[in-house]
Write a structure and sequence with these properties.
Elements (H helix, E strand, L loop, with lengths): L3 H13 L2 H8 L3 H15 L4 E4 L2 E4 L1 H28 L5 E6 L1 H6 L1 H11 L4 E6 L4 H7 L5 E6 L11 E15 L9 E3 L7 E4 L2 H13 L5 E5 L3 H9 L5 E4 H5 L6 E7 L3 E8 L1 H4 L2 H16 L12
Parallel strand pairs: 3-4, 3-5, 7-11, 8-9
Antiparallel strand pairs: 1-2, 5-12, 6-10, 6-11, 6-12
Amino acid sequence: MIEARHLRVLRAVAATGSFSAAARELGCTQPAVSQQMKALESSAGTTLLIRTGREMRLTEAGEALVRHASGILAGLTAAEEEVAAIAGLRAGRVRLVSFPSGSSSLVPGALAALRAAHPGTRVSLVEAEPPRSVEMLRDGDCDIALAFRYGDPGAEWDDLVVRPLLTDRLTGLVPEGHALADRDEAGIAELAGESWIAGCPRCRRQLVEVCEEAGFTPRIDFATDDYPAVIGLVGAGLGVAVLPALAIESVRPRGARTLTVVPAIEREIVALTLPDLARVPAVAATLDQLALAAAASDPAASSGPAGV
């Protein structure tokens, strides 16, 4: 019989490429990993891993088992949490992943309210931008992913529970002394000849698309996922940028001026989880607190959930 603990080890070996690296990740010994893989291959009745040089490579059977492992482990985690909550053994634990500006704006208030209402619930937080955060959710590495999207993602999230939180409008940033610094609003085309400072990869793609629709391609001289760094570069007079209102909310833009950019560039902020996890009381409570924190937030963007 295939055991869940063996699937966890197989997934770690597949991700790291060796028994020793998997052992470090799992906090066990290399012989223990080797022993569990032998037991798994015995249960499966076929070879799952072969050594190629210094790395372990999955066989076709191993690849098939890893594909199914994530869903199996995520479902098992959800079942364990729901049963534990129903049995009153513990209030629950929630693994949350968020993009940085969500971590600094929505998450603190939500988690503080959650702790006050459910002091036994434990929440862990790591940061990742979509689509990586969504991959982590599907792989069973988190329970809730705070994510964002520009426009309609089509079928990208059809297998997930989508909790709309708010619509975040991107805000323009120009250095003090810039020709547009005293304006409240500017068209994106008025920044065509500027040096640009871009944010995360998904935001960069959206910036390029919007600028090209306005008739120009932005000259991106600097790119960084660190929003305070973007603001600092603008404040130093090195270029202009557009950033989500949530990102500016928690940073004092010294040396930079904000302005409304038209046409509006907006992103939808959502919380994602798996259908099985949505029924876990601790996960449901965390989603509710994130929604309340979003409703209480008042960034420069227009707030309120958008349709899914």
